[in-house]
Structure formats: structure tokens, C-alpha cells
Amino acid sequence: MSGILMMVIALVVxxxxxxxxxxxxxxxxxxxxxxxxxxxxxxxxxxxxxADTNVVFGHQxxxxxxxxxxxxxxxxxxxxxxxxxxxxxxxxVFFGAVQDFAAMYASVKNKGRTIGYIIxxxxxxxxxxxxxxxxxxxxxxxxxxxxxxxxxxxxxxxVDTETGxxxxxxxxxxxxxxxxxxxxxxxxxxxxxxKYGKLNKWVNTAIAIILLVVAVALGLKFPIYVSQxxxxxxxxxxxLIASVVPVWxxxxxRDYLNSYLLIFMIVAAIVGxxxxxxxxxxxxxxxxxxxxxxxFPILFVTIACGAVSGFHSLVSSGTASKQIKNxxxxxxxxxxxxxxxxxxxxIALIAVASFADxxxxxxxxxxxxxxxxxxxxxxxxAVGLPYSLVFTLINLAVxxxxxxxxxxxxxxxxxxxxxxxxxxxxxxxxxxxxxxxMTNKYFATVITLVLxxxxxxxxxxxxxxxxxxxxxxLSVLALVACAVFLKKTKRQGVMLWLPMVFMMAVTxxxxxxxxxxxxxxxxxxxxxxxxxxxxxFAILLLILGVIVALQGIKKLSEKTDKAAx
Length: 565
Description:
By secondary structure, the chain is an all-alpha fold. It has a single domain, classed as Orthogonal Bundle (Hydantoin permease). Helices cover 72% and strands 2% of the residues. Helix 1 (3-29) packs antiparallel against helix 14 and helix 20 runs parallel beside helix 22 (529-556). The protein is globular, with a radius of gyration of 22 Å.
């Protein structure tokens, strides 16, 4: 299959899905364009802040995308291009987009509350407590993994792994670091402009693009060279600040800026594919078992972002839902952003498929972002663009986005910790000193980030395998919660049942395999600290996930005659 044919198939499926299936869901569940959204009803200038559709879309897209839809398909390509293509398209439309839309819809219809509160309202307080504990543990995992990835990406020095001696500087990493830091400063300025400038959205867009170009140009011209250990500290200080400041001051404008960078990358890649028409050098299907890795469940855990990812539900219900100006904006922001992410995953598949056996490694392309950037650079040389420039810019775009997800995840982790200690019947004005401490946003942020920092020092390689399984289990819990909400409010939710059951089988199998493998090593006394932490987290997550899922299924099996619309 040619790259163009694969691209055309993907575009037809994804655009058709938005126009047909997305609008079907919107009409089936019902929206009220005249309703006062939580962004206005609960406006507090910190988390609840109304924003234009393009701004919220930018936040949603930049937060959920990152490097996930690039890494996953490239890793999963060991099974062949056909299963990867099918899972991205089927999973993206009928699993991921449905989940993201349902999570945002349920949140907006419940005063912008998170999935945790949805579970409390429609499943029970115990379910809510367990889910929030699960989310908190999950967010610690994500922050630890992503912070270590970002620190490694920003690391300006190449070091001999055996002696620890510095061998030289890494210009590309330094450029990425500079650009990302400039992004933060520009985002604060843009946030002020968006809030107080009251300019036309097209003027805001033009300013954002100009700021983006300036940041990239300065990054390429003035790379920063700082060690990985120092970047760990800088990144966690940044996350600490970003997690507590108002969303309009940093989160919204930063994601707004980054979304244009990501969209530019996608458009450039699509143009490159149509110009060069790369051939698919992968087998359509290799084997169900590749070097001890079974397609079920590995394929469906590896490709999360791009198909279905539980993390998306936290963004949809945790931050984006609190910024929706009008209920009609939910479809493009949630369903639309997910389908665009699926498109990015397809591009990643075309990229890795364009390389013949060993060709990528021969060019020095070893990591997933490098393979992606190298392929796109190869495509765009057909229109006369220099390989080195395109390679650097694409690498820059991919790498910059790992940082964009960090403060969103940290904020969700903070909110999950706070909500764990709160119930609807708690009088927030007369809480005990203990509850005041536990629900203090600064304390909640610090304890979350301290644990994440300690775990990050272990290294993302040690915790990344568990992240995939935990992420997909989170999608199960989100789908269960949304299905119960739809049933209890007398809305049709049958379209969530198949994704829910299938992902339940995937995640319980994957976590069971992880626990079995690590448990055997533990008994034999062969586990190091990193793997021991993995085992503990895997057991806790599986127990919590099973309990919450069973509670949700019990509610789904109840009669609906007492349900309230």
C-alpha cells in the first residue's frame, strides 16, 4: 500500500466519522446552545474560565496529543501495518472519540465536575474515593515518566554511560529547551492579551503564530546547554507554579501556542506524504507473537493516544470542560481533537512504514521521535526543503509537546487529591484543620510532585510499561462512569458498552501479565527498586480498577425506572 492511499483512507474515515457519527452522538445525547455552561455558572478566574472554541481546542489537543500518538504506532508496527491502521481508525472513532466526548458531556452537564464526582453522583461515594485514588496514583506515574522524558530531551550534554564523562553538547536538545522556555514566557504575555486585550480571534491567532515563529527562531539560534539532573529540578519547579496559577495565565495560552505548532507539523507531514508518495515497506501482518509480545493485549496497550486513552477523559472532564463557552462547542473540542490525534497516529505509521529494514538505524534514527522526524524530512526534500532544517523543526515540535501535558496532568493530580477528601455534604467553611490541609491546593500539589519527583529519578524506562496498562484501565473506568451517567439520565449509552468491555479485557489481561512476571521475579529476589515500584503500583491499580468497574457494572444492571432525567 502506498502512503497516499493510506492517507486518503484515513482522511475519508475520520472526516466522515466527525460529520456522521459525531453529530449522531450529539443529537442522541442532546445539547442546549442556550444553557449556561459551568465556565460561566462557576466562573472563578482560576479553573472555571470561559474561552473561545479555538483556545479550548488548542488546550485539549495539545494536552492529549504530545508524543503519545507518535511513539505508540511506531512501537506497535512490529505486528505489521494492517492491525495498527485498523486499531487507530476503529479505536479512534468508536472508542477514543466517544470516550472523550462522553467525558466532557457528562462533566459539562454536572457543573464541570470531574469523572470522580460523576462516579460519586451516579455510582456511589466509595466508588468515587477509589477512582480518585486511582487517578492520583496514575497522575504521579504520568508526571514522573513525562518529566524524565522532557529532562532527557532538554539535556544539553552527551555523556559516556560508563565513565560519566561529558563528551560534548547536543545542539538539537539545546534548541528544544530554549524554544520551550521562550514558549512559557510568551504564553504568559499572550494570556494577558487574550484576557484583557479583547481583540478579534483572528488577530489573536496572527499574534500567536508570530510568537511561535519567534520562539522557534530564537531556539535554533540560541540553544541552552543544561544537564539532565538540573532540568529535573527546573521542570518540577515549573510544574509546581503552573499547576496552581489561573488557567488563563499559562495553561490556555501555552496550549493555544503549541496547538499551532502541532497543527503545522501535521499539515507539513500530510503535504510531504502527498508529494513524495512513500511506499509501505512493512509487512501487512507479521505474527500474533513477536519476540514474546502477544498482539493481544500489547497492541491495544501500546497504541493508546491515537486510538483510546484514559488520560483524555481526565483532560476532558478536569480542565477543558471548565472552559467551554457553549454546549455546541463540546463536539469539535472533544470528538474533533481526538480524531485529529488519530490522524497524527496515521502519519506516524506512514513514517515508520516508509523505512526499509534497518534503514532508519543506518541513518542514526533510533528513537520514535527521530524516526518520525527523519521520515517527514525525507518526504519534504521532494519539495526542495533542506533535510537538516525539517528534521530539526519536526524534532523540535515533537519534543516540545511532552512538556505541554505535564502541567495539565499535575493539575488533574492535584484536583484528584483535593477531591478525595471532599464530599458534597462537607462544609468547606467549617472544615477541620486536617481537612483544610488535605484540600489546600498548594499542599496537594507539593505532595503529588514530591512523589512524582522521587519516581522520576528511577527513570521512565522503568515505569513506562506500567503507564500504558494504567492508562487504558483508566479508560475503562471513564467509560463505565459515563455509561452509568447516560443511563441514569435516560440517555442512550449503549455505544459505550462494547468499548468498555473490550478495554476491560485488554487492561485486566495486561496488568495480570505484568503482575505475574514481576511477581515471579520478586519471589526469586531479582527485582530492583524500579521494578518493585512497578509491582506495587500494578497491584494497587488492578485492585482499585476492578472494584470501581464492578460497582459501575452493578449500577448498569439495575432497573432504570428510578432514573432521573
